[in-house]
Amino acid sequence: MPERKTNATNATDVGVKALLEAVTDPKRKADCQAVIRLMKGITGAEPVLWGASVIGFGSHTAISASGRTTDGFLIGVSPRKKDLSLYVMPGLSGFGDLLTKLGPHKCGKACLYVQSLADVDAKVLKELLKRAVQQANGG
Fold first, then answer.
1. Which domains does the chain have, with CATH numbers?
2. 92-112 pLDDT, tens per residue?
3. Which residues, listed in sequence order, are joined to residue 78 by a DSSP beta bridge?
4. Quick check: helix, strand or coil at residue 75?
5. Could you report the average pLDDT of every consecutive run of 10 residues in the chain (139 residues)?
6. Phi first, then psi: what are they for 38, rounded to 5°?
7. Which residues neighbour 31 within 8 Å (Cβ) at sequence distance 6 or greater?
8. Which of 2, 20, 58, 80 could bridge 45 with an S-S bond, Cβ 3.0-4.6 Å?
9. Going by C-beta distance under 8 Å and a sequence separation of 6 or more, which residues neighbour residue 17?
10. Half-sphere exposure of residue 67, counting CA atoms within 13 Å on the CB side?
């Protein structure tokens, strides 16, 4: 039977509110709160703090090429000091059409980094997150 693990960053009982209260930059805090509302609206899920600094929504099981499964959140956000980090499971491949229209950003495999929500196209970001959730749910 394939090995099953939870994500190295596990869901915690610590509240999202406590994380947001610790964000000292008012613009970063406001951006994070806006993304939380957006992600909650898209997923219909309540925010859950994963590890020390990631606010995740929904659940997602990833299966690696070796057959190992990992449980985690579907989409999430973290108010990092330099960037607002948006996590998109199962990754950003296949979203090039939207990423070219988004505005200034950087990408990792499953992470989108933006300095400010004011810098990106809100409609494009919403569409990207909606499509990511649909794709992760098999649609």
1. 4-134 (3.90.1150.200)
2. 988 999 999 999 999 999 999
3. 85
4. strand
5. 45 78 94 97 94 89 78 91 91 93 95 96 97 85
6. -60, -50
7. 79, 84, 116, 117
8. 58
9. none
10. 3
Q: What DSSP element (H or E) covers 33?
A: helix 26-43
Q: Give Cα separations from 102 to 10, 56, 114, 117 (angstroms).
A: 30, 22, 10, 10
- What does the pLDDT read at residue 1? 38
Q: What is the pTM of this model?
A: 0.86
Closest CA to 125 of 60, 77, 56: 77
104 close to 84: Cβ distance less than 8 angstroms: no
111/72 Cα distance (integer angstroms): 14
